[in-house]
Amino acid sequence: MLISFVAHSVIAIILSLFLLPMPSTKNFFGILSSISEVSDKPDEPIKEVEIPQENLSDIDEPENMPEEIVEASETPLDIPLKIDDVEVSIDMPEIVSEGPGPPTVENKGHTGGRSGITRQQLLLSQGGNAESELAVTKGLKWLVAQQQPDGGWAFNGKWELRNGATGMALMCFLGAGHTHEKGEYQRTVLGGLNYLLNNMQVGPEGGDLRGGGSHDMYAHPLATIALCEAVAMSRHRNVRLSASDQARFDRLSSADQQKFTTQRRTSIQMSRHFRRAAQAAINFCVNSQHPANGGWRYSPRSNGDTSVTGWYVMALKSGQSAELKVPRKAFVGSNHFLNSVSASRGAYYGYISPASNSPVTTSVGLLCRMYLGWTKDNPALVEGVNYLSRHGPIIKDRDMYYNYYATQVLHHWGGDKWKRWNEVMRDHLIETQKANGSWFPGGGGHSREAGILYETTLAIMTLEVYYRHLPLYQKKMITTEVP
């Protein structure tokens, strides 16, 4: 019975992923001025900044906080090229496993499980099902219909943060494995990325993606996360082919080899362009951090609050996963801010001061601590996770902001607490999705102000949790074979 259920679930998932039409690409514009000859020398690797695993809650003061400006070098935004003239699809299959037996996923803590058979296996093993994946598919189709002719998205509530709306929409597509290079929505994603680059304001402190409007400091990290994830998920970050891909290339006809080479040069050039833009956006994150408090809020270098700071920490971690230059001092400062708003040595978090009765800000603080190196045996983390588990998802007057953050905390934690949480959260979102693929805003958090697109993107990413980010506390995930 179990084998039959799993088999039928996988079949349903696969079918659902292939039933949607391709989106229109009309009026989308790119950011490449030309496709120049690409050197056969690979890019110089960018050293990834490692965060030590010791308990950073004992750090009382931030060390070496940034006083100088981090220059944004080789910033893009040149003459646009119409992307209708460029094919970016590469018809070369990805490598899922190079040996016998089930695939092994090295835990990179971020985007390693978003595509292929690995995604399907994670979906089933981590608590998703055919219905939850169908809800994601319907939600993405709704987002395609909301994309505007300039490639971006807009909140349909009181918020006017177009860069933020575009970032949240892109995160949904990227979370399901769709990039500007692969997947069903390549041109949709490319249009969104181009919109962000064309609306980036480049200055001495980096690439500013706030875009103007009330609470625009939220927009920058949301857009930055999308850019960084697109860079991290790029298939062609270096010029040299892997041995396996070279073998596939050698078996192609001469015409197909020429087509592949042209497409690949385009993809490499685009990836380099997006990398420079993502680094500029990370630079702005670093330079807008408060130099003593260590947080972020409603203007650059102002005293932080937990809500805004949470998105910036996630942006910095996304930059790290993309192997961009992220100084350690930015993470040290983030920990210093979290210390300033924490109670019970980090089990609970308030908004701008310590609090022990706020599940919303506690969910943000705990997720940040997980990504900043707290281990699973940390007593404060254990206490905080138990608190969220007892509180459970906010279903009545749904608060998707809280549900989104807390779902990630419980997913990383795993075990029975995650299973109980997931059954409630997953089934609620499946049941409340509208026929057109969207979710009506609940009564909690920013949902009423931001509108349907905000609510829908958070719901989609919550249902992508099974594969969107690999669980932090499993060094390796050896998944079971799919029948």
Can you describe what's shown?
With 483 residues, the protein is mainly alpha-helical. The protein has helices at residues 2-17, 116-125, 130-146, 162-175, 186-198, 219-232, 243-250, 254-287, 306-321, 328-340, 359-371, 379-391, 400-413, 415-432, 447-450, 452-463, 465-468, and strands spanning 104-106, 201-203, 206-208, 342-343, 348-349, 476-478. The two termini are 12 Å apart. The model is unreliable at 1-109 and 476-483 (pLDDT under 50).
Summarize the helices and strands and which ones pair or pack:
Elements: H1 2-17, E1 104-106, H2 116-125, H3 130-146, H4 162-175, H5 186-198, E2 201-203, E3 206-208, H6 219-232, H7 243-250, H8 254-287, H9 306-321, H10 328-340, E4 342-343, E5 348-349, H11 359-371, H12 379-391, H13 400-413, H14 415-432, H15 447-450, H16 452-463, H17 465-468, E6 476-478
- CATH architecture heading: Alpha/alpha barrel
Strand content: under 5%
Query: What structural category arises from helix and sheet content?
Result: mainly alpha
Q: Number of domains in the coordinates? A: 1
Strand order of the largest sheet: 1-6
Query: What name is given to the CATH topology?
Result: Glycosyltransferase
Output the CATH class name: Mainly Alpha
Mean pLDDT rating: 79
Task: Assign a percent range to the helix content.
Answer: 40-55%
Helix and strand element order? HEHHHHEEHHHHHEEHHHHHHHE
Total strands: the figure is 6
**Uncertain stretches:** 1-109, 476-483
Rounded to the nearest angstrom, the radius of gyration is 21 Å
Most strands sheet: 2 strands, antiparallel
Q: So how many helices? A: 17
| Shape by Cα distribution | globular
Distance between the termini: 12 Å
